[in-house]
Amino acid sequence: MTARQRTDELPSSGELDSTAQRVARLQGEMARLHAENDAIRTELRLRDHALDATSSHFVIADETGPEPVIVYCNKAVADQHGIPRAELIGKSITALAQWRNANEDYRTQLAAALSAGRTFHHEDEIVRRDGSTFWLGVSITPILDVAGTLTHSVAVGADITVKREESRKKQELQDKLLEEMNEHQRVVMELQLAQKLESVGRLAAGVAHEINTPIQYVSDSVHFLREAYEDLNGLLDGWRQAFEALPEGPHRDALARDVQRLDERYDPRYVRAEVPAAFERTFHGVERVANIVKAMKEFAHPNTDEHSPADLNHAIQTTLLVASNEYKYNAVVDTDFADLPPVTCNIGEMNQVFLNLIVNAAHAIEEAGRDASTGRITIRTEREASFAVIHIGDNGCGIAPQNLPKVYDPFFTTKEVGRGTGQGLAISHSILVDKHGGEIKVHSEVGVGTTFTLRVPIAGHAA
Q: Whole-prediction pTM value?
């Protein structure tokens, strides 16, 4: 090749200038890209430092594969789970989401929310590798591409163990406060009822005492009248015998006519036949009033906290006598009393329990539409080991199954307004269970009837 040919192949000065310009532009572009990359790396480092400085959990997952894959997580996530961050990157999200209580519903709901572009909120207990746990609250937000396809998800969460514990303690405190308020309400209710019963008891005792004296007068007077009547009958018989002993004659005939007119006018045979029966009815009535007065005095005996041996069979009979007006028009009472030993109890409070159950039985029978010919209240006592057991049943309307768990709740009642306060069974439960260490159970069937079974320790609450 000649020197001219080699000279002809060299670039011209214009071409060299153009190349230099392109090189300069490329160098400038590369410098700009380097600067932008440096700025991006600085921003990423700043983001990483910021996210690592927060106690919140931050996770980005790739959602394009069969399972979400962790592409980023901050320091709080790794520290809280006890797994190095380098070990987490590229792993399935299940390395973190070791939920204790989550099930297939959780996964289905999460997938549906992310596919619909909605944020999914979840709280559950996380189980670490070492078996320890903590509670995590997390919000998972989908990232969609321009076509609306799910590509990534961002989970932001926090350790809510302390928050949940505080919430639990707060709820416990609220429950305790509510329980104390209910107990206070129950105590106030019992105190009010006890004061009312004490007033009524004193009034009843006073009335019984006032009735007792005139009844005694009536009883003594009726005894005197019966004796005087018998004496008068003897006197009349003596006069008749003396009259019949008179000799016959005009004078005796005149007296006989007078006696006949008097017999026809006053009919002594009728009087002699009916007066003794009237005396018997009067004595029976006086005796019944005296028994009622005695029962009222026993039932209304001033109540104390003292527990002493008592005859429960006699107490039930006394209560039946006092409450007879509640049931005599719609029920007959059948009793079957076993031979019970004296039971150590507060007999005044036990009388209140018996009265509440007998009155409730009478009301249930009346509500069922029964009368004295079909209504039945059955009371049976028996001994079971160290307990005296009392069964009080009726064939009334019964208690609906949904109401059975609530029958001992204060103020719960199914009776009409003005007839029931919802206190009777609540107080009966308190007296029997809390104050006497006994038990009360109920068995009921709608339309068939109800039976309450009471078990009272024979030796008393301490035993």
A: 0.46
Phi/psi zone of residue 238: left (φ > 0), alpha (ψ -120 to 50 degrees), beta? Answer: alpha
Conformational region of residue 447, where left means phi above 0, alpha means psi within -120 to 50, and beta covers everything else: left
Q: What is the pLDDT of residues 151-176, one digit of tens each?
A: 999 999 999 999 888 988 999 999 99
Structure tokens at 192: 């009010």
Homologous superfamily (CATH) for 303-463 = Histidine kinase-like ATPase, C-terminal domain (3.30.565.10)
Tokens standing for residue 363 = 């009301």
Alpha-carbon distance of 215 to 296, in angstroms, equals 14
Both tokens assigned to 283:
């004595």
* Assigned token pair, 278: 């009237």
**441: which 2 tokens?**
């159970």
Report the alpha-carbon distance of residue 195 to residue 68 in Å, rounded.
71
Say which DSSP state 401 is in. G
Given the structure tokens 């028996």, which residue do they identify?
A: 382
Q: Residue 447: how many CA atoms within 13 Å on its side-chain side?
A: 0
**Beta carbons within 8 Å of 54's beta carbon, 6+ residues apart:** 74, 76
Adjacency order of strands within the sheet including 387-394? 332-336, 376-384, 387-394, 449-457, 439-445
Superfamily classification of domain 56-159: PAS domain (3.30.450.20)
- 403: helix, strand or coil: helix
DSSP 8-state secondary structure symbol assigned to residue 385:
T
Q: Quick one: average pLDDT of 357-367?
A: 91
User: What DSSP line would sit under 324-383, residue for residue?
Assistant: HHHHTTT-EEEEE---PPPEEE-HHHHHHHHHHHHHHHHHHHHHTT--TTT-EEEEEEEE
56 or 189, which is more confident: 56
Measure Cα distances from 11 to 5, 21, 71, 360 in Å.
Answer: 13, 15, 52, 121
